[in-house]
Every structure is written in structure tokens, then in C-alpha cells.
Amino acid sequence: MEKPTAAIEISSAEIKLVVGYEIDGQPIVLYAMRKPIDAFVERGQIVNLIGLIDALREIKEIKDATAKLKLTISEAILLLPPLGLEVYQSDKTTNVVSPTGTVEAIDISNVVSLVRKEVIPHGGQIIDIVPDAFALDNGVALSSQPLGEKSNSLSISAKIHALPFSVIENFRRAFKEADIVVKRALVAPHAATYLLAQDLALPTSYLLIDMGAEVTTVSLIGDRTLFSSTYFEKGGKDLTTAIMANLNLPFDEAEKLKRRYGIDHRPMSFYPTIAQSVDIEGVEKQYTTEDLNRVTEQFVYDYLVSLKQAINSLMSGYDKKYLKMPFVISGGLGRLSGLDELIIEAFPDNKIHFCIPKAIGARHQTYVNTLGAILANNRYQSYLEEDRPVVTPLTRGGKEAKERK
Q1: Model-level pTM?
Q2: CA-based nearest residue to 327, from 224, 206, 231
Q3: Please, are residues 251 and 241 in contact by the beta-carbon 8 Å criterion?
């Protein structure tokens, strides 16, 4: 059995940890946990670094007496949010060093180093290099490293994922201060594609909508490849806040009502009381499922307007027919009861798929990215090092996205 891999994603509401490995293309979970964090991260940005560091330290040592499990998290894959993500296409060629014309590890390193030297516009930093294919001088293209193959030259076609320094730095710093080595960093929707690819019922090209706590990301996936991403600042935590404000309830009680009732579309002649509170004038008020429905539906209607705007922005450079691409929905808000009916109503031209992981021990939408990271880690190696020079310009990957569709 291979060595287990740990993957960690930090959202505005919780730290998500999955420890596992891959068998027959599927993630096998040894341990999964969601640790709530409060006011450490807001809208994808770390605002309390010390608090987050302490929270990460608390999950380093895992002792589960029930499962008879003891783990030490010394290194992990870091999942980063695609805030300001840029995806570039890079195609490079180098001569093979060996006098016998055999591709060796040094040739792989040489051609990848040419990709690493790309200049990232707007001050972005490369977080990942994803090979599409390696090509030999006879025109043969291979998805894996062509070690031992005969060729006088070696070419690579790869996607470069780049993020703003401001998105990356504090996450890396939090890991470092918590004494957790960043094994590699992956952008979250890219990692998700590896898990989604295992479900043959899902399309190969789609819009991946990750409905998080305070941020919703919309990513264009073409032929199981990430091409671009956008986001808007609204999610499940905002719905809880709306319920809290409108029904004058504590946050925890509002969260419980949201999870328990969601949106009930059934016509009813009686609406039971589900909560009560005292207003600022000291008058006791009672709230029914009808009151909850009213608040929740209004939030979802506004949320879907924002979602439509984000999709239109992301797809503005494409033919309008691509606005009808299927949706694959992940993230905690996607679990809201009754949400599916309103999304189908708002997007009648799109086929809607809700992603529910099948991995035992992590069957929750919020684990999609971490489960995918475990699979991605086995699909291709990390080609990045801490010190990487930059010298040449890049071509955006978006144009290829249009062509491949």
C-alpha cells in the first residue's frame, strides 16, 4: 500500500482535512475531519494568521480511539482558492542531452525548467505546472514522461496555474508556522476535476460551481481540464447570517434551522413555530417555517442573480451556446434542501449535477477538492521548486478552451 497523503483546504468556515491514498482510481479515506474556525478567514483571505496557525497545530496530531488511529500530519497538499486565478498555455522544446538520443530524467527537468521560467503578468506566481502532453521528434505525443524513448528533442505542452501573491503567501506562512510542510499546492477546482473524472455519469466539459461559506467560485472545465475561474463573495454562511438577522436569532441556532429545514416548496395550510426570540423592545416573537422560507428564498433568489452574473462574465469571450453547458455543483451550500428546484428553475437550459463524493468516510460535498487532491498527487508530479527564475512571456490558455470544445 502506498504512503497515505494528507490534503488540507481552508475555507471561511472550516479546515477540511482528508488523509488517504488511491486504489483503482478511487480515493480511499483513512481519516477525514472538518474543524470549524471562526473569523480566521474572510472571503478567502486570512485575517487572523495567529488563530489559523493555532488551529492547524491542533490537527497535526490525530488520535482517534474509536478508529484505533494515530496520525501525525507533518506534510500535506495545500488547496488554494482560485481567487484571481490565471491559466496560461506553455509549449516548450529542448534538445535531448544523451548522445544515444534516449530521453532521460535530465531532459524532463530541462524542458520543464523552460516552462518554469515564464514571466507571469500582473505579478502572479506559478503554483502548479500541469503537463498536457510530452512529444517526441517523430510527432508521437504521450501523457506521461517518455523516459527511455528514442528522440533527439523533447517537447512539452502544459498549463500554468498562477495566483496573486496575496492569495498564496499567508496560507504558506500558516503552514510553515504550524510545522506542516507544503508537499505541493493545487488550485482547488483543478484538484476537483480528478475526483469528478471518476464519475462516468458526469460530463467531461462543464461549469464547476463550488458553493462555499463566503465565496462561490465558478470554473470552466473543458475536457476535464481547468481553463479559467471567477468568483463572487456570497455563500452558505451569508444565508445563515440573513436568517440570524431576520429572525433575531443567535448564529448557531440560525445555522441549525438552515440545515434542518432548507426551503420547503410544499403548499401547507399550517406552518409550525420553529423559533422564538425577543426583539429590541422586549416583545417576544414567534417564527414559523413560512418565515424561514421567506428569508431563505429571498437569499437564494439574490444568490442566483449573482451566480448568473458570474457565469456571464466568465463566458463573455465564448459563443453563447456555451452558456448552456452542464453545471456540476459542489460545496456546503449545495446541500441546502430545496435549492435544486430553484436552480433548475433559474437555469432551465443547463443540466444540473450535484456532486456527492462516494468515498467512505468523506461523503460530503465539502470534501470534493481534498479528495481530488489525493488523486491529482498520483497523476503527475510537482515540477516546482522554491527558487524559480522567470524570463519569457506567456500565452493564455483560454483560446485553447474554445478550440477544444
Answers
A1: 0.91
A2: 206
A3: yes
